[in-house]
Design goal:
- The protein has 463 residues and is mainly β.
- 7% of the residues lie in helices and 41% in strands.
- The chain has five helices and 32 strands.
- The longest helix is centred in the middle third of the chain and has 9 residues.
Length: 463
C-alpha cells in the first residue's frame, strides 16, 4: 500500500461541547488520526465513503515503538469511534461505543494511551452501527523487533467489500421476508448446502482500488516481500491466490505460526495473514489476488520490479472463489503456544439463526442474552458449536486465544483473535483470563452481528 491516496477530503464537523479543543496540541510522539469523508472511484464512478487518516495523509498507522499513543478526532457529521482490533488494550480504551465508553461526537476527540501489545498485523475499524461497511477501517501494524531487522519489503494488502447501496438499506433488505415460493426453495437448499454469502456486492477493493485499476507497488528485482494481508470485508471471505509463486505463511492474526508453504491461503472476515515470498528471478511482475468466496469477483495488487510489464486483469473470472473452511486451520501450529495447564472453565456458545428470518444469536451456556463470565487468572475454554448453514468468524476483544480442537480432533493450533466456525462445525479455543473488563464478543460478519450475534465477556469483580 502506497502512502499517496486518491481520496478527496470533503466536509468538516463543528466542535461538540465535550470535544478536546482543536487548538490543543497532541503530546510529543502522539499520532493524530482523523475520521473523515472522502471520495474513491469504483468502476469509473465516484463514491463518497469514510476513512481513517493521519494528518500527513498516511492511511492507517504503523508503529515501531512499544506505546500506542493516539488522538482520534471525529471530523464526520455523525457520532463514531474506532476499535483497535487485535490489541490487548485496557477495556475502557477498546473503542466499542456504549460498552467501553460513549461514542465520539462530531467535532470531538479522544486520547488513547496504552502498551502496543501484542505486536503484529492488526487493524482498526468503526464499531458504531454499520459504519464499517462504509469503509471506516484501516491497517494497524505493530512491528516487532524481528520485523524491523528483516530485510523483506513490507507490503500491506487491505481488502474490503463495496456496495453502492447504503448499509442500512442492505440490512433492511436482508431482514425482509422472502418472496412467495422462495421460502421452500431456501429451506430445501439449506438442508444440504451452506449459504456462502448474504450480500450481493458490487465490487471488491484492495487498498481502496478495484482490479481494473489496481495499486502497482514497486519492488526490487529478486526481492523478498512480506505481505501483511488484512480481510476488512464487512461480510466476505477471501482466498489469497499467489498464482505460480509459492509463499510461506508465517503469521495469522498477527501471531507467528510454524511456517506453512503454499500458493493459496484462505482468509475469513477479520482475519490476517503474513506471507513471505521471493520475487521470480526473471524479473516479472506478480499479481496478488483475493478471490471472493462463492463469487466470480476478485481484487488485488501488483508487485512490479523495475521495467516489468503489468498485464491488464479482469475484476471477475469464470471461476467461483473457493469455499473458506477449516482445512488449513487444522494444519496450523502456534510458534509460541500457550503454556500447558488445565482448563478452569469451559463455556459453551451455540451459534444460531438462519437466512429466512435473518435473526442470528449466540446463546451462552444455553441461555440467550447472558454474558460469558470469567474470573481473573483462569484458563478458559470456549466451545463454539455452529448450528447454522453459514460460517461465522468469531472475535473476542481484548484477548488472544489458541485453537485447540476442530470437530472432535485435538490440535495445538494457531494463536488468533478471530476464528472461523464453519457450518455445522464445532471449534474449541482456550485463553488466559488476564485482562479484566467488559469485552465485546461477537460474529465479525457485520450483518450477523447487527442481527443479534453479539454478546459480552465479563470478569467477575473487575470494577
Amino acid at each position: 500500500m502506497s502512502l499517496s491516496r486518491r481520496a478527496v477530503l470533503t466536509g468538516a464537523a463543528t466542535a461538540a461541547a465535550a470535544a478536546i479543543p482543536r487548538a490543543a496540541h497532541a503530546s510529543p510522539g502522539r499520532t493524530v488520526l482523523r475520521l473523515q469523508k472522502r471520495q474513491i472511484e469504483v468502476a469509473g464512478k465516484p463514491a463518497t465513503r469514510y476513512r481513517v487518516v493521519q494528518d500527513s495523509g498516511a492511511f492507517g498507522l504503523t508503529l515501531d515503538g512499544d506505546i500506542f499513543d493516539v488522538r482520534l478526532i471525529n471530523d464526520l457529521d455523525v457520532p463514531s469511534g474506532i476499535h483497535w482490533h487485535g490489541l490487548t488494550e485496557p477495556w475502557t480504551q477498546d473503542g466499542v461505543p456504549y460498552l467501553s465508553g460513549p461514542p465520539i461526537l462530531p467535532g470531538a476527540a479522544r486520547d488513547f494511551h496504552f502498551p502496543a501489545t501484542p505486536p503484529g498485523t492488526r487493524w482498526m475499524h468503526s464499531h458504531f452501527g454499520l459504519q464499517e461497511q462504509n469503509l471506516l477501517a484501516a491497517p494497524l501494524i505493530i512491528r516487532d523487533t524481528d520485523a524491523r531487522r528483516d530485510d523483506a519489503q513490507e507490503v500491506v494488502l487491505f481488502l474490503e467489500d463495496f456496495v453502492w447501496a447504503s448499509p442500512e438499506s442492505v440490512f433492511e433488505g436482508l431482514r425482509k421476508p422472502p418472496a412467495a415460493g422462495m421460502a421452500d426453495m431456501k429451506m430445501d437448499s439449506g438442508a444440504s448446502a451452506p449459504d456462502l454469502n448474504d450480500v450481493e456486492y458490487d465490487a471488491y477493493l484492495a487498498n481502496e482500488r478495484t482490479l481494473d485499476d489496481p495499486e502497482v507497488i514497486q519492488v526490487e528485482r529478486n526481492g523478498k516481500i512480506r505481505l501483511r494481508i488484512i480481510n476488512a470485508g464487512a461480510s466476505s471471505n477471501f482466498t489469497i491466490d499467489l498464482g505460480n509463486i509459492e509463499g510461506t505463511l508465517i503469521a495469522v492474526d498477527g501471531n507467528p505460526v510454524t511456517p506453512l508453504a503454499g500458493q493459496r491461503f484462505p482468509l475469513a472476515i477479520a482475519q490476517r495473514a503474513d506471507i513471505v515470498l521471493s520475487m521470480p528471478p526473471d524479473g516479472s511482475a506478480v499479481p496478488i489476488l483475493a478471490l471472493g468466496e462463492g463469487r466470480q469477483m476478485r481484487a488485488g495488487i501488483i508487485l512490479q520490479p523495475p521495467g516489468a510489464a503489468v498485464a491488464k486483469l479482469a475484476t471477475s473470472t469464470g471461476e467461483m472463489g473457493p469455499q473458506v473452511g477449516l482445512d488449513q486451520e487444522m494444519k496450523l501450529a502456534a510458534a509460541s503456544p500457550l503454556t500447558a495447564r488445565p482448563v478452569d472453565r469451559s463455556i459453551p456458545v451455540d451459534l444460531t439463526g438462519n437466512m429466512m428470518g435473518y435473526v442470528w444469536g449466540m446463546p451462552i451456556n444455553g441461555q440467550g442474552g447472558l454474558p460469558a463470565t470469567v474470573a481473573r487468572g483462569e484458563r478458559v475454554e470456549i466451545v463454539f458449536r455452529n448450528t447454522t448453514m453459514m460460517s461465522h468468524p468469531m472475535h473476542l476483544h481484548g484477548h488472544v486465544f489458541q485453537v485447540t480442537g476442530i470437530d472432535g480432533k485435538t490440535i495445538a493450533g494457531a494463536i488468533r483473535d478471530s476464528i472461523l466456525v464453519a457450518p455445522r462445525a464445532t471449534v474449541k479455543v482456550v485463553f488466559d483470563a488476564d485482562n479484566p473488563g467488559l469485552w465485546a464478543f461477537h460474529c465479525h460478519n457485520l450483518y450477523h452481528m447487527a442481527a443479534g450475534m453479539f454478546s459480552t465477556l465479563v470478569y467477575r469483580g473487575f470494577a
